[in-house]
Structure prediction request, 382 residues.
Amino acid sequence: MKFTVERDVLADAVAWAARSLPVRPSVPVLAGLLIETAQDGDGLQLSTFDYETSARATLPASVQDEGRALVSGRLLADICRSLPNKPVEMAVDGTKVSLTCGSARFSLQTMPVEEYPTLPEMPQATGTVRSDLFAHAVAQAVTAAGRDDMLPVLTGVRIEIEGSSISLLATDRFRLSLRELQWDPGSTDVSAAALVPAKVLADTAKSLTSGTEVTIALASSGAGEGIIGFEGASGGGVRRTTTRLLDGEFPKVRTLFPVDHTTVARVDRATLVESVKRVSLVAERNTAVQLAFTSGELTLDAGSGDEALATEQIEASVTGDDITTGFNPQFLLDGLTALEEPVVEMAFTQASKPAVMSGVGSLDGEVDPDFRYLLMPRRLLT
Prediction:
């Protein structure tokens, strides 16, 4: 194996592939990054795999000799990041890989490449979506995903595909996010669902934004069943990620969104974010920030008894009954920052029932139907 490649192209691809390396690999070879070359086709291919998630980057390179080698992925990433801006030459030299860049020379010990597992194949492509739109939608959806590994089903994002529409749902039992977006399906009658680990989905969506679109590959049956694949162009090559789907039944959460509301309030989102941050400074751990909505005003309170107290009033457009409720301040802030519109609408049925948060372009504008964030209230201290 021997090839020459541009330093920036190599460093970027190695860093991307190495990002999913396991911290504590179950077997030593899983800490490796697989380097493969071919004199035709893709040229250079870099891969990592931990039996759950795979990453494969193809990039243009001048290949002198075909071959493959397995080296420490994190070490190679650190080396590539530190190299001068000159072409990089890599070659197999016995049981080592030599790397030369300008006057810098490195020799890396190889790992037994024959022990490295075979990467899973991508399922057949299901459709494509704009990469920036997908990354933004995923970032909003994962806001409500659980982080408790004792409840693995809730650490995922449920992707529901129905024709030209994709829905992303996540919940940790205390909040729920629903993001809907349009895409270009390969078939108009496509219907599929998958439960994808939230962290993998977020990292993947964010890392595939250099190209204009992302291909989503999801097999409903047969070859490739049980995994989902994502592919995007980058740096003159292609990047592919596959991950194993989570097992288990995702709760039927769509019915939690109420149809009717007794109180609807609209508040400047940036003002509310800053107010919640200030007032919550005195909120003890696991206590709520109280929100009292009255005509034209929202009053925020936190703290109790002999401890520190905080209160603040901000303008609000309130329609319907006065209502006083309370929320976990961090969960409230998570929902507010996931929205992007300048105004937030909070819709209530009862003080003890969940509130639905949506974005609005202006105080009298139309609600953005694409993203909704449902938040359970917390019991208020009396």
The mean pLDDT is 93. The chain has three domains: 2-115, 125-244, 257-375. The domain at 257-375 is CATH 3.10.150.10 (DNA Polymerase III; Chain A, domain 2). DSSP finds six helices and 27 strands in the chain.
